[in-house]
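Example record used in the benchmark description.
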Amino acid sequence: MGRPRSSVARQAVLAAAADLVVDVGVERLSIEQVATRSGVAKTTIYRHWPSKAVLVVEAIAAVLRPVATPDSGDAWADLVACFEGIGTGPDDERSAALVLALLEAAWRDPELARLADRVFEQRRRPARTVLELARLRGELDPGTDLDTLVELITGAVVMRRLVLRRPVERRDLERVLGVVVPALRPDALDDERTAAGVRA
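Model output (structure tokens):
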């Protein structure tokens, strides 16, 4: 049994909108173009997406690789798992182009900026959850500013992927984590024990 027609039409609209963002950009994209490319009537599109901004952000979010929230008990490994492999998948070049188009357009469109912020916040949340769990386990100081840590980690990832146009591999993440959250380094506990022994 095939998917309900409403689901098929929805996916066609989202795919057409994402393709048009890549082809013509966010600002030049129109609902009429989406209707033509997807084969779905404009009235149907507006019934499900009240504005172009809502449609564009949902279409881009649908293309992005899902971000899991690992909880292995090893914060270092879990943070690596949150980000490792960005830029290495078959659709990642397209995803990067979509994110750049969204960021550029959001500077001039407050509604788009507000909606995009929600998407990016959702994508930051797994890393923050990993750090929250690490703090609860005593791996981080109780006063650690988790939001700043997440910004530093994701900022480094965005810099590498979108500015330098390079994939994000394990060794890159481990270098970043070693600087940003050294308390989570695999050898951090041994360092602390050594330091304690010296003080004793």
